[in-house]
Amino acid sequence: TDYLARIDALNPALNAFITVDVAKTLAEARVADAARAAGTAGLLTGVPIAYKDIFCQQGWRTSCGSKMLDNFVSPYDANVIERCRTAGLVTLGRTNMDEFAMGSSNENSFYGAVKNPWDLAAIPGGSSGGSAAAVAARLAPVALGTDTGGSIRQPASHCGITGIKPTYGVVSRFGMVAYASSLDQGGPMAQTAEDCAQLLNVIAGFDERDSTSLERAAEDYTRELGQPLTGLRVGLPREYFADGLSSDVARVIESAVAELRKLGAEVVEVSLPNTELSIPAYYVIAPAEASSNLSRYDGVRYGHRAAEYGDLADMYEKTRAEGFGSEVKRRIMVGTYVLSHGYYDAYYLKAQKIRRLIAGDFQAAFAQCDVILGPVAPTAAFNLGEKSNDPVEMYLSDIYTLSVNLAGLPAMSVPAGFADNGRPVGLQIIGNYFAEAKMLNVAHQFQ
Ligand code: GLN
């Protein structure tokens, strides 16, 4: 109830939550109390959690930040929600996000922009900006987000919290509204690496209802926390510290690296030569997959349907024209274009080849180091409205986050300091496949 009171007081200014339902929250809290009384409580029983509005949750509106799903109440739980429910976590509400997770500033939501709790003039980052703002403002102790091209790490960085995008396939995508299926991955957002590790213990695991879910033995993501860093080889990619990185973000990252060196880490320079190509490759592949995934919103089965229309084709057209916002329409147009006959080879196939090169770059780098460090974004949070009329400018700000998703690697953001304007700056830690526990320990050293 402390958190509910804070949401009541602060959410009107932050707009971090789309839906809060006090009666449902209290009912879940009673179930947690009963488990405690019965002696069946686990470590996280009764811990409140906020869910990005992209995870289907039975009985709750699951809008995905879109007018298209404004009236959609999910009849079932996403796998991660099911796992959190079983662990006894209590739903505080559903957090705001860029429409269908497309964006880097949370300005693309049908429910309005989210404000950054550190500075209400700043964007919180996106697309999981509601979850990041909620944790940063202590409206929730932990939250779930999703990351297709940076949407957990970038808002975590801009809001001064910790967030981790696991290796692709570690967390089930079942019941998570699809944006770009080969890139999407859910993950924890919290104040600390330790809290992220505890939550990852709950949500990770095989799920037969997601065909890309990996069948692996369960692991304890807290197991390396507190271990010494002596001998850890930290790679700094030359391309991440070149033109385009603002000097104050560079200063914060350099002092974080110096800190780790003091703790015994060994620093090596590595190279990720195809970094620049991650932007065009991602902005071909993600819209291509999105255009296919979003074809299901046709006004027939669920979601928005235009009130007046002629024939069936007219119904589809009006429904989609009314239901989708402008960024989503832009992505659908780009996606259908790059997949169309005659252009497929020139764009989509090329992008897939670049994707393979980027994955290869990382493997070459990991032959020389254990983790890669760098910035999450070129600058600290920019102002609301600053880039919203220039999509390309917005896409360029994703330069340090996209390649990780193209390669399917785990990566996280941990608070590392502040920019000259006082806004938070996160350090990005990128690991090889399944190196989550090691990365969480590196992040833990800052806390
Ligand atoms: N900013 C990127 C995009 O708009 C990434 C978003 C995400 O990770 N969901 O596609």
Compact summary:
The chain is of the alpha/beta class and 447 residues long. It has helices at residues 2-14, 22-38, 79-86, 129-136, 153-159, 193-203, 247-262, 278-293, 312-323, 326-339, 345-366, 391-396, 402-407, 436-444, and strands at residues 17-19, 48-52, 90-95, 142-146, 162-165, 186-190, 233-237, 266-270, 371-375, 411-418, 424-431.
How would you characterize the overall build of this protein?
By secondary structure, the protein is α/β, with parallel strands linked by helices. It has a domain at 2-203: Amidase signature (AS) enzymes, CATH 3.90.1300. The protein has helices at 2-14, 22-38, 79-86, 129-136, 153-159, 193-203, 247-262, 278-293, 312-323, 326-339, 345-366, 391-396, 402-407, 436-444; strands at residues 17-19, 48-52, 90-95, 142-146, 162-165, 186-190, 233-237, 266-270, 371-375, 411-418, 424-431. It has an eleven-stranded mixed beta sheet with strand order 1-3-2-4-6-5-10-11-9-7-8, sandwiched between helices. Strand 7, helix 7 and strand 8 form a beta-alpha-beta unit. The chain is globular and about 65 Å long. The chain binds glutamine. Glutamine binds at residues 101-104, 127, 147-151, 179, 286, 398. Residues 101-104, 127, 147-151, 179, 286, 398 line the site of glutamine. The active site is at residues 52, 127, 151. Residues 1-440 form the Amidase domain. Pfam families: Amidase (PF01425). Belongs to the amidase family. GatA subfamily.
